[in-house]
Design a protein that fits this description.
Largest sheet: none
Shape: elongated
Number of strands: 0
Helix content: over 70%
Oligomer: single chain
Order of helices and strands: HHHH
């Protein structure tokens, strides 16, 4: 029986998430509001505000759950066996050859059907 574990919701977590979203919105508004300033300074400010918003969001239960999920995903990706360059090139060439073969086959079928319809109409 698959049980679904529920994460406790607290008012503080909701407030933190609201603050994080508010900071992100304020950062985006400020980025465009101060359009007469240097684009580099505005970008640095936006990245800084975004970093603070993410840091605040990661202190919530949902943020910790997301961090755990990302850690587990990274572990699973490291377990994967990736193909070598030679295998990748060979597979790509096979796909291209099969695609070309199917394209020629479809072209021939199209020509045959076109010819048969022309002969049928006469």
């Amino acid at each position: 029986m698959a049980g679904k574990t529920e994460v406790e919701r607290s008012g503080l977590d909701t407030a933190k998430l609201g603050l994080a979203v508010g900071l992100l919105v304020a950062g985006i508004v400020a980025f465009y509001w101060f359009s007469d300033q240097s684009a580099l300074l505005r970008a640095i400010g936006l990245v800084a505000v975004s970093g603070v918003a993410v840091a605040i969001g990661m202190t919530t239960a949902k943020g910790r759950a997301l961090a755990g999920y990302l850690r587990e995903s990274r572990t699973e990706v490291r377990k994967m066996v990736w193909p070598s360059r030679a295998e990748t090139v060979q597979t790509t060439l096979v796909v291209l050859a099969v695609t070309l073969l199917v394209a020629i086959l479809l072209w021939l079928i199209d020509m045959l059907l076109g010819w048969s319809i022309r002969e049928f109409i006469r």
